[in-house]
Amino acid sequence: MLKQKEYVFWFCTGSQDLYGDKCLAVVAEDSKKIVDALNRSGVLPYHIICKPTLITNALIRKTFEEANDDENCAGVITWMHTFSPAKSWILGLNEYRKPLLHLHTQFREEIPYDTIDMDYMNENQTAHGGREFGHIVTRMGIERKVIAGHWSDADVQKRISDWMRTAIGIVESSHLRIARVADNMRNVAVTEGDKVEAQIKFGWEVDAYPIHDLAESVDSVSLADADALTDQYYNDYKILLEGRDKDEFRRHVAVQARQELGIEKFLDSNGYQAIVTHFGDLEGLQQLPGLSIQRLMQKGYGFGAEGDWKTAGMVRLMKLMTENKKDAKGTSFMEDYTYNLVKGKQGILESHMMEVCPSIADGQISIKVCPLSMGDREDPARLVFTGKVGRGIAASLIDLGPRFRLIINAVNCKKTEKPMPKLPVATAFWTPEPSLATAAEAWILAGGAHHTAFTYDLDVEQMVDWADIMGIEAVVIDNDTTIRALKNELRWNGAAYA
Ligand code: MN
User: Fold this and answer.
1) Is 90 exceeded by the pLDDT of residue 246?
2) 335 CA to middle of ligand 1, Å?
3) What distance in angstroms lies between residue 451's CA and the mean position of ligand 1's atoms?
4) What is the pLDDT of residues 14-66, one digit of tens each?
5) CA 279 to ligand 1 center in whole angstroms
6) 8 Å CB contact between 120 and 112
7) How far apart are CA 451 and CA 185, in angstroms?
8) What's residue 3's pLDDT?
9) Most buried residue, 20, 170, 255, 388, by CB count within 10 Å?
10) Which 8-state DSSP code applies to residue 386?
11) Cis peptide before 434, with omega less than 30 degrees from 0?
12) Contact 430, 443 (CB under 8 A)
């Protein structure tokens, strides 16, 4: 599933005609060289297209309007090679609705001490032109990313690459569709939220369907198709019978295979990229979707349990933002379950009733069939594994009533000290930054949920940038967090976002 469009980014260089055609020819040539080098770097996840140098109000406005209209354009990167009078940008910026990156770079890295003259100074004026441009974008109150440094620098290229992934999360958010086939779990607060406001802020369409429609789609899958997919499961995963009858075991697994095909058909035919379920509302479904949902998440669909559409939306977006990332380690719906509070070994055991995405798996993935302690259906089949080691982020989107807040915690994933042979679910184990105690206190004070969208493949800055463009508050919990500063931040943000 994942993404349908072939996204590209536009590179728009600002200049003016004060220094003559010769200077403008150099500007155009330098821009091409930078774009070619960035495209050849192998670092950027998306191609950049070099647009003609922008020098007039009319051309700037036309270019931004075209960027809006071009479905494949995911954002514009601006660079002021020379001084570009910023009033020329007002009309275009007023029209523009996509992510904007101001690359504050300069063609040459070093001052050419022996040859520098006034022509060179006029031609290489980003120190001055970039500030003029920045002034008007700030005055107009437009959210954008600013990245300063030489374009050949590996860190600058990495930051452009990271921003591109954030931009995809912004552009894709505007047409994300989430199917609800069950309501929120009764009496639970944190998975609730204002779906109208989510559509206004994020662009998300969150629609409800009777679970009957989903069950009907599952029932429409032929037994032969379900059987073929079950064969594939038996080929790909280790089967852990653990004393169960092998034919009965396979029948339970085949139910999930049929669900995988049926739920996918339901989502694709109705145009949804994310789904929620609820263990207490399964109607015609034989089992709570476990293995089926795990595999659908791996294919790129968003998921939230107990009707949690906000986390489902974030999981989907984070999967899109990390698409095709080299050495990606995975993205999943997750839940804070159980603590290890032993000094020096503190951490949170992460899991869910079943629904953890196998993209985060380290090594062997097995199938188990076990009873659920909740709900009233037959024992569901599920994939069991442990998560990878490494740094990641856990994000929780909450609705505070008048507004949304995104809480982002940097976490360090580890192996548990010992295996947990009696636990029939996939798990991860992490120590949140700056420490379990401070992170848990900060998370609770900020109002974070027990469900999160987790990934190894994005960083805090990318999610903060996403929240900024969406116009919502981002609260970061990482090694810089202290409770005193966080409490003040929450107070001040209450005023800033009121
Ligand atoms: Mn849950």
Assistant:
1) yes
2) 6
3) 6
4) 998 888 888 899 999 999 999 999 999 999 999 999 999 999 999 999 999 99
5) 10
6) yes
7) 13
8) 63
9) 255
10) B
11) yes
12) no
Ligand 1 mean position, distance from CA 101 (Å): 37
Length of the chain in terms of residues written: 498
Q: How far is the CA of 428 from the centre of ligand 1 (A)?
A: 15
Tokens (6 digits) for 286:
């034989």
C-alpha 297 – ligand 1 centre gap (Å): 16
Q: Does residue 328 contact residue 474 with C-beta atoms inside 8 Å?
A: no
Distance (Å, whole) CA 272 – CA 206: 9
Structure token digits, residue 285:
């479904």
Distance 288 CA to ligand 1 centre (A): 13
Distance of CA 215 to the CA centre of its chain: 29
Q: Where do runs of H (alpha helix) occur along 183-327?
A: 195-202, 211-219, 223-236, 246-270, 291-298, 309-321
Q: What angle do CA 236, 241, 247 make, to 5 degrees?
A: 90
Distance from Cα 378 to the centre of ligand 1, integer Å: 19
Q: Pseudo-torsion of CA 204, 205, 206, 207, nearest 10°?
A: -170
Ligand 1 mean position, distance from CA 215 (Å) = 22
Backbone angles phi, psi at 149, to 5 degrees: 140, 170
pTM to 2 decimals? 0.96
Burial class (CB in 10 A: 0-12, 13-18, 19+), 493: middle
Please give the distance, rounded to the nearest whole angstrom, from the Cα atom of residue 222 to the centre of ligand 1. Answer: 31
CA 354 to ligand 1 centroid distance, Å: 10
Q: Give me the phi and psi of 38, to 5 degrees please.
A: -65, -45
- The alpha carbon of 201 and the centre of ligand 1 are apart by a number of angstroms equal to 25
How far does the centroid of ligand 1 lie from the alpha carbon of residue 305, in Å?
5
CA of 263 to the centre of ligand 1 (A): 20
390 Cα distance to chain centroid: 18
* Domains of the chain, CATH where assigned: 8-173 (3.40.50.10940), 177-496 (no CATH)
